[in-house]
Amino acid sequence: MTGRSMVEEREQKLHAEAVERVGHDDFGEPTYRAGLRVVLEALDDDPGNAALANAIERHALDALTGRLYAEAGWKAYPSCLDTKLAPPLVITGLPRTGTSILHQLLCTDPQFQWMPNWIAAAPRPRPPREEWSQAPEYLEAHRRLDEQFKANPGVRAAHNVEAMLPEECIRLMIQSFVTMRFISTLPLPRYEKWFFEQDEVPSYRRFADNLRLIGKDCPLPWLLKNPSHSMGIEALLTVFPDARIVITHRDPIASIASGASTIQRSAGSLWSDQNAIGPHRLRIWSRAARRLEAARKARPNQFVEIEYDRILADPIGATTDIYERFGLEQTSQTVTAMRDWLASNPQGKHGKHEYRLQDTGLTAEAIAAELSDYQLRYGYA
Fold this sequence. Notes:
Helices cover 55% and strands 5% of the residues.
């Protein structure tokens, strides 16, 4: 069987599995197939890597099932697509710079709406929270996450995910197959090259329509979070021109090393060459840092910058900086909710994430060479 035939066979199999899982067969406009094919073709570059092939097919199946849920939702509630979205608050920055804790804290504020993990995987109008645990998709998401963390318990110490917790935007954006999901953690150089030649605006438009579906009955502004928005920042601002952007920052010697360590824990078995993980992270995220800074310079009034050490030392104060910057109200009830969340989720709750730069295949000099402007900008040089 030729390589092309194998790709077509994989593609057909994945579509059939998605239809069987969801019970619908409308995947929407076929433009996504270009990215799917590149992803599947990229597996030919590492033909003996069964673990990578399984991971890619799992991600692809998740993306296809997400498309089916979204298309069914838009058919059932077509008027939601006419909704004008309120200006979102978007948290981004390089990975391992405090985006997750800031996201969790701000999600305690009822003036925002946010996306739980299980609905990101199976988009539909978000039901009342007391009904979540009754949904089959919620139970399935909980089961899968439980299995993943039991198989690799060290991952939760670095990055905890739960079915009911706020999810990163990339879980929805994978539907387009033009996504950082396939390059931020995985060794797919063919897809990486292709991705950087693509326009992410259509992916962000589909993302916005997913938000319209999920928040069909809720006019509140969205609270969004993903480091990948630093790479797609221009596309994001094209689709959400009035977005308010929070940039978190940290000494890149620490954040890049922490990110490489996280990938070693969560996806290290997918890499034939473990020493390539660190340089890969540095190459990808130094590019993202440059894009984000260019966007900030062009639209300074839409950005606020929050330092990682401030988030850890005074997390409530860090959120107050954001509220003040964008003229938002931070009520006493919200501050109490944030304090309650912090008390219930101390740092290291799921174990301590320990890492060493020398274990990542990187040196401080190599990181500084790629991110010297970033270090100077934020005072880490």
